[in-house]
Every structure is written in structure tokens, then in C-alpha cells.
Amino acid sequence: MEQVSAAAVIDARGIVTGWSEGARTLTGYPAEEAVGRSVGALLAEPPSATSVAALAGPVVLRHRDGSLLLLTVRACAVLGADGAPDGYVLTAEPPAEPPADPGPTLAEQAFQQASMSLSVFDTGQRYLRVNDVACRVMGVPEDALIGRFFPESVEDVEHSRGFLHNLRQVVETGRPVRYDSWAGAPALNREHAWSIEMWPLRDPSGELTAVALAAFDSTEQYLARQRLALLNEAATCIGTTLDVVRTAEELVELLVPRYADFASVDLLPWVLGADEPPQAPDGEIVLRRVAHGSVTEGAPDAAVHLGQADVYPLSSPPVRALREGRAVRGQAGEPDFVRWVEDRNARSPEGRSHREGVHSMIAVPLRARGTTLGVAVAVRMAHPDDYAEDDAVLAEELASRAAVCIDNARRFARERSTALALQHTLLPRGLPGQAVVEVAHRYRPSGSLAGIGGDWFDVIPLSGSRVALVVGDVVGHGIASSATMGRLCTAVRTLADVDLPPDELLTHLDDLVTHLASDDTGDEVAELGATCLYAVYDPVSRRLTLAAAGHPPPALVLPDGTSSLVPMTAGPPLGVGGLPFEAVELELPEGAVVALYTDGLIEDRDRDVDHATAELCRALTASAESLDALCDSVLKAVMPEEPSDDVALLLARTRALGGDRVATWDIEPDPARVAGARQAATEQLAAWGLEEEAFVTELVVSELVTNAIRYGQPPIQLRLIRDRALICEVSDGSSTSPHLRRAHAYDEGGRGLLLVAQLTQRWGSRQTGSGKTIWAEQPLPPD
Fold first, then answer.
1. pLDDT score of 579
2. CA–CA separation, 93 vs 20, rounded Å?
3. How much is the pTM?
4. Whole-angstrom distance, CA of residue 325 vs CA of residue 400
5. What's the pLDDT at 743?
6. Rounded distance, CA 717 to CA 772, Å?
7. Which residues are CB-neighbours of 8 under 8 A, at least 6 positions away?
8. Which residue ranges in the chain fall short of pLDDT 50?
């Protein structure tokens, strides 16, 4: 066969059985690809019926490169033994020489010179055309790709399989596909972000003949979105707690592994304490490591251990960042960077292997409200890209947000420490010695973000061996609440010294809170709201008198093991004003336990108050070696795991003064009865074995009884109480209180109370329901 003409042989089924060299030259298909194929597969469109009948006519073939060929083909039948055609010999003349090449068309130039990667695949996912950008991405010329099956030109990885799947999807559905992919390419040294669109190509008859695609390199846009997403995430995941160390750990967790292969946060030592920021040092800077993280488990590439202090030289990137107040980048090959890496290797030789490949780092200062707190360092090893200018901007923004959160945590810790110290100063450190009740107490400050509250408790000795039990709670948290708590605690002690009944004391305390609130402005008024429970126990009568201002009622445990809440009206909280308080009085057996507490023990967002109160009553009945042990078991059983408010608990076990410790006499309002009162007191002291106290006691009894007869009103009563002190009390029906006065040289009276005050440990008066009581205490020698 002549090479100038093309010839092919097909059998009766239309299968190519012969293929000339001219046919290869004309169509681009070598014989090994053409023989055995259906001749219809080589046609771009079926021939007309007229041409088939005449065995001659125009035929449109598809060249191997995808272009179309319009040829005039003649067919000659090859007859078999029976005279029927067994096949045909097809001949075609090469097309006439075209005119001089005018060059690529405008469309071809646009395809070839496009700034994005353009490719065309046949329906079998073989390359038909690729433009210049696609060739650069693939790293091979177009000739090396034409006709190749796509999977043969790339690695068998996930994104390549996804690309092939989408090519087939377009062929199967005939619909375009658009998707984004983070993938590499043979000629690129790292992965890129691609926005890919594939669409079907159809011939004039509408048949799908190929798939075209355009791939736009959207790496910069993708990285910008990633940086924005990192900033958005920082707003929610940094600063979730008011803890300095935890906040630093959250910054590291955000940076690794998306932004860095290793990251660390070092703070100036004063940040972790309660000191004010010192002046910036002139030389080397000491920093304390509070958090670090790595893509390698356990962070073996860290040269400084957590909690360890490290000295950074002036030339190191962290110190430069602190002094310059901006992000400082370091790249492999730079002298400062090399010295920094060598210093890390010298400090921690065991981590040298994990630092191999370190090629870029960035140090950014942590500054908030004009104060430098420390420095954050990010390092890249496995990550292929060096830190660029955009990365420095991102690092400064992340560090700025983290620094504000760290400073907030530092300020909160400082305020909480100050409030806690103030509260510990104001709360009773050691309860005063007294014998009428055995007490135990616990105070647990809140660990919530709101800060320390204003809970307090107190045990106040009163006259006549009585004792006052107090527990209160100031609304709000922080230093303001602690200061208000101190004011109220002092006010309660002052009013208790006047020996007012519980309901009257709360009335005066309510007035005080109202006056304090009126002296403040704005939101501080709300901080002065408070609740309080004030109870007085008399060991002689074994009666407990109590009143509450918006406070939970106490729990009572009887010696038989039964427990319940004391039925009482809580009354309005302090500061409401204008509403009365009601006192409740009940008689207690010796050995009863009274539990006073603040609402933080039983109230919480997720708890039912009634259920918590029932748990409290059950916990109080548990057996315990001591009252202190009972305090601990109650807190363990009742207190929430993470209390949102302070908790104060005061337990008091009652004791009674029996008749052998109390002596009482009714005195007629006759001056002649004073001598008898002195004699009775002297005899009682002898019976108690207190003869040494007789002289002072006689003088006290004589003066107090004389004053009651002379200035008071009947009935008059003398009472001696032997407790930790010897107490002498004289009661009468007058409400006029005595007072000390200075007697002149020639005055006949006015010196009695002065002598009583000088000879006794303390003295005073209190109002009663039927008059007043004047009392004086003398110290007793220890048993």
C-alpha cells in the first residue's frame, strides 16, 4: 500500500482487520491500536445512508488527538466463496494541502495561555488536551500526556481517586461538577488548594464526547480563610477559665498542629504571683514555662520543662520580641536563628533528634493593657512553609487575644486572693472560749468565676454565760462583698454587746444596711443586700431564741438522733426596710446540735432545695467521733461538687448549767435586806469552794442590790452563776440603765459602779422583758 493513501480492511462485522501506514499517518492511530476495533469507534459521526449505499462518499473521522478529519472514502467489497461480501477494503486520499497556516485561533490562544490549569479528557478519562499551566503543574510536556489514562499520570492517593471519580461522574450524569480540593501535584513541592470545575463537551448532535476542566489555584484564599477560622476559634476556645496556666495551654492547643509543629508560652515570673509588674530589666530576661505542645506526643522537642524558669539572652528571638513589642521571625540560616537552635540543643541534647528539620520560628510578645506578660513561640519542622508576613500578623492577633485573657485571669486571681485574705482576716480565726456550747465550723470559698462571696459566721459570748450564734451572707462576690461582710460582722458584734434580743438586733442591722446603701450610688446598692441568722442560747434556761433576715432556717439534731429544720419565719433580707422580724424561742435538751449554714450548702442551679435540705438533715444524724468530723462528713455529703457560691457551716452542741452551778434569791425592796444578800452570796461561794472570791463578791452584791433597791423597781432578784467565770446578776423591774460617773471629793455616793468596774473583769447591763439586769464577771482560777 502506498503511504500517500490510507487503506484499511474490515470484516463483515465492521471490525478492522488491516491497517496501512498511510492510515496511521492520516489518523494518528498505529496499527496495534486500530486492528481489532470497530470501525464505528473511529468515526466522529455515522456516514450518510447515501454514502453507504454507493460505497463512496464523505466520512468524518476523529483523529487520535481529538481533532476531526473530513475524508472521501471508497469501499471495495471482498467476495467470499459463496459470492457474498466477506469484508471491505476502504481507501481514502489524504486531504488536500491546506493553505498556509494562519497560526492558532484566538480560542486556541485563550486555552493555551490561560492563567489557570485547563485540560480536556475523553470519555475514558484519557488526556486529549492540556494547556501550558497544566503542563507546569504536572511537570511534563503535553506530548507526554496526550492519550494517557489519568491514573497513570499521578500517584494513587485519595485526592487523585476523588478527581477520577468526578471525571467519571460527569460522563455518567452529563452534568457539571464543582468542588474544592487540598492536594499536591507532581511538579509542586507542597500541597495547594484547588477550586475545580468539570463540565461535559458535546458534539453538534448533542452526544457527550469529552470532559473539560478548569483548576484554579486558590491556596492564598484558602490560607486566608484558615487564618480567619483560627481567629474565630480563638475567640471561643481561649479564656474559657480564669486560670492563667489553663489559658496559656488553650493558646498552645490552638496553635498545634495547624499553625505550628511546636509552640510554647513563657511568662514573666511576676504574672504568676500577686506582685505589681516590675520595671523592664536591661539585660537577660527570666521567663517561666507555663505551657507547651508538639505534634510529637510528650513534646520531646521542648528544651525547657513545664514550671521551669529559663534565662533568655538578648539576641534570642523571644527577648527581641519582648523588647520590640512585635512578632519576630527567624529562618534557617540566619545567625540569631542558628544560635537559638544551638542553645536549645545544648540545654536539652536528648531532644536534638526531634528538632532536626527546624526551619522557621516566630516569637510574639503577650501584651495586654500596655503591660508585657510574656512571649509565645511557634516553630515549624514538618510544615513545609516558612512563616511569612501574613503569619506574623495572625500571630500578633492571636497573642493579643490570649494576652487579654491571661491578664484577666491574673487580675481575677489577684482579686480573689485579696478578697480571700480580707475575708480570712474578718472571719473569726479562733472562736472565743466559753463552756455553754461546743462549736465546730467550716468555710469553703467559691471556685466560680464570680469570685469570693460574702459569707460569714461568728460565735459571740454574752452576759450570763449566754452565747450568740451568727451566720450571714452578703449578696454578690469579690472585694466589695468581703468589705461589706466585714462591716456587717462588726455591726453585729457591736449590737450583740448591747445585748439586744435577736429580732431587735436584726431591725437595727436592717437600718444600718439601708443607710449604707443610701450612701452609695449606682450598682453598688445591690451589693449591700444581705441575709443573716442570729440566735442566742441560754445554758441556764436551755432556751434558744433566734430570728432570721431572709436566711435559711437552722437544722436541729436532738440527742435521740432525730433531725429537722427549726420552724420559723425567715423575714425579709437586710436592706429591704420597713418590715418586721419575728423571733422564735424553743427549749433544747442538753447535747442538742444546732446547724447554721449559708445557702451555698444547699442551693445550686441543678439541685432541688428541698432534696438538699433533706440530705443535710440525714447527714447531721450520721455518727462521728467529734463535731469537727461531723462538719467534714456533712460537707462531703451535701455540698455540691463544684459550688457556685461560698459555703459556711457552723455546728454548736449545747450544754446546760445545772442547779449546782446557779443560785438565785428574790430580794425584797428594803435596804435592810442588803446584808442578807451579802451573807447568802458568801455562803454559796463557800459551798462552791470559792472563799477567796468572797470579798469582791460581797462588795459587788452590796453595790448592785443597793442600787436596785434605791433606783429600781420590784421585783428584784440576785443570781450567782459559776461557769468559766463567776457571774453576779441583779435584776429589777426598771428599764433605766446605770452608768459610770465621776464623783467629786465631797460626794457621798457615785463611787459604787466605779469600784465594781475596777474590781471585776467586766460588767454591763441588758434589757429584759420585765426590766433590766446588771451583771459583773470575776475570773476564776483554773480547776
1. 83
2. 12
3. 0.58
4. 11
5. 44
6. 11
7. 16, 18, 19, 20, 23, 34, 39, 89, 90
8. 1-3, 450, 521-527, 743-749
The span from the CA of 341 to the CA of 344, in Å, is 5
For strands 467-477 and 453-461, give the pairing.
Answer: antiparallel
Distance from C-alpha of 544 to C-alpha of 592, rounded to nearest angstrom: 11
- Residues 121, 374: Cα–Cα separation, whole Å: 57
Say if residues 6 and 16 touch (Cβ distance below 8 Å): no
Q: For 41, phi and psi rounded to 5 degrees?
A: -70, -20
Distance CA 761, CA 491 (A): 24
Q: What backbone phi and psi angles, to 5 degrees, belong to 398?
A: -65, -45
Q: Determine the pLDDT at residue 525.
A: 40
Q: How many CA atoms lie within 13 A of 149 on its CB side?
A: 7
Q: Are the C-beta atoms of 615 and 565 separated by less than 8 Å?
A: no
Residue 191 to residue 429: CA distance in whole angstroms: 67
- 202 in Cβ contact with 208 (< 8 Å): yes
Residue ranges of E strands in 394-552: 437-444, 453-461, 467-477, 530-538, 543-549
Cell of 512: 444600718
The set of cell numbers assigned to 304 is: 525547657
CA gap 546, 506 in Å, rounded: 10
C-alpha span between 261 and 607 (Å, rounded) = 45
Helical pair 389-426 and 479-497, crossing angle rounded to 10 deg: 0
* Chain-centre distance for alpha carbon 373: 20
d(CA 202, CA 200): 7
Residue entry with cell 448592785: 704
Q: What is the pLDDT of residue 748?
A: 42
Place of cell 436566711: 551
Structure confidence by residue, pLDDT tens digits, 585-605? 999 999 999 999 998 888 877
Q: CB count, 10 Å around CB of 673?
A: 19
All 3 cell numbers of residue 426? 474578718
